[in-house]
Amino acid sequence: MTERRTGSGRLPASRVWRWPIVLALLTGVGLAAALLMEGMGDTFGWVALLVPVVVGARALAQCVGGHWRRGYLTNPRGSPGPLSRAAPPPSA
Fold this sequence. Notes:
Helices cover about 60% and strands about 0% of the residues. It has helices at about 15-35, 40-70.
C-alpha cells in the first residue's frame, strides 16, 4: 500500500491522528462504562482501558528492542545508558 502525501511531502493530518483519536475515544468510553455500569460494563471497561496500555507497551518494546539489538543502549564505558551509541570495538 502506498502512502498518500500532501504536496509538501507530509502525511495528511487525518492519517497521522486517526489511531490516537481512536485510542482516546476507546479510553473515554471504557472509563465511562467502568464507572457507570455494573457487570458487563465493568468487563468492557477493563478491556477498553487495557487496549491503549497494550498498544503503548508493544510500541515501547519494539522501540527499545530495536535499539538494544543495534547497540544503541550502551554508553562508551560499556554500561547501559540512555540511547547512546555503543563505542566501536577496540582495534586488535
